[in-house]
Automatic annotation (TrEMBL):
Protein's recorded name: Amidohydrolase
PANTHER family listed in its UniProt record: AMIDOHYDROLASE-RELATED DOMAIN-CONTAINING PROTEIN, AMINOHYDROLASE SSNA-RELATED
Domain Amidohydrolase-related: from-to ranges: 49-397
Organism domain of life: Bacteria
Pfam annotation, one family: Amidohydro_1
InterPro entries, A to Z: Amidohydro-rel, Metal-dep_hydrolase_composite, Metal_Hydrolase, MTA/SAH_deaminase
Keywords, sorted A to Z: Hydrolase
Keyword Hydrolase recorded: yes
Amino acid sequence: MKAIINANIFDFDNFYKNYYILFDKKIIEIGSMEKFPGASHVIDAHENFVMPGLVIGHTHIYSTFARGLSLPFNPINFKDILNQLWWKLDSKLGKTENYFSALVSGIEFIKNGVTTVIDHHASGKQIKGSLNTLRKALCDEIGLRGIFCFETSDRFNVEECIQENLLFLNENNTDMYAGLFGLHASLSLSDETLKKISELYKGPIHVHAAESIDDVEDSLSKYGMRVINRLNKFGLLRENSILAHCVHVTEEELKLISQNNCYIALNVSSNMNNAVGLPDYQKMKKHNVKTIVGNDGLGFNLARELLNLFFSMKLKGKSPLAFSLDDLRYSISNTYEIASKLLKIKLGKIQPGYVSDLIIVPYIPPTPISKENAYGHVVFGLLDNFRPSHVIVNGKLLMDNYKITVPTDDVNEIYKEARKVSQRLWENLSKNYK
């Protein structure tokens, strides 16, 4: 049996000072240090924060090798961003690129306290088997939990996309990894493709929806309806589906999303970076839409994303009261909730029966800290300098005093090989411009 001692436990609802946590794969017991019964392996938290590992609700592992990439880039709208950067990049990704993207992503997520990743994947040179490539690297070798899908799109071989999603869904469902059915976005999916998916698959989907006005205008001009209405027409607004962005949706569409018990993944840093606008959280809240937190593949720092969400929604709502600490807590809680449903485990609390996905985050409070103000310390202090020292997933220590304990290769060797892989990828991409 393992233990964390001298812990200031915070799980976004509860705060306990100077506690112990007994755990193996699941949390067995928590209590005051005065009653600590001892354990075979002990980690001393030194009165720092111990929190549940973070869950990222929408990301793109395949974006890893975009860092430092230089391509001719002069977009005037969002579709130009796709055409000039992302669709060029993902078209050249194969098994090796996918594998090292996931290894590097896993290490970077650990450094940032992320222990469960909901990923939305695309790779033109490896469709079949791509999700198992990600699973092998991120889950089997690095040790994180992952929920994967392949973004079906008319840009690719649609039959291969569909089969890759269905095969992964049918063959892989453990407490460490699971599948969703992925679709790219309305603007890259024909009626024929949506109809085929609707007939072959009846579960939840993971899709970009109304991220930019381009997606809406494309749907209106080609099909005479808005994006959410179009998904609803084909019966694809299924319970526990993840709709990423929803920046350009109407209240009627939000009602449909709420009625069908779907989640909206908010990705405000990406929205600002792409200048597509910001989601209207107040309208989502009005219609009881469940929001979760993603980053759309823009880096690995979820703490930054939480702060950007907190501040940008106040600006969007034109009031310092437009997005409260409770609103942020609601989105965080929903992210744990959907991941728990898909993996069929209990995430997000430090209580007996919950899985042992835990992080220790050093923090020296400059002002008194108590149950009443601990959350304020986290948002205005801890998240501002968020550097976990220890990360535990499924009871296994993945980072020990800032040192990654990758079970396969030395971290430096992984990064060294990743640089070689990315260099070859970039050279391959640059050939198109010579």
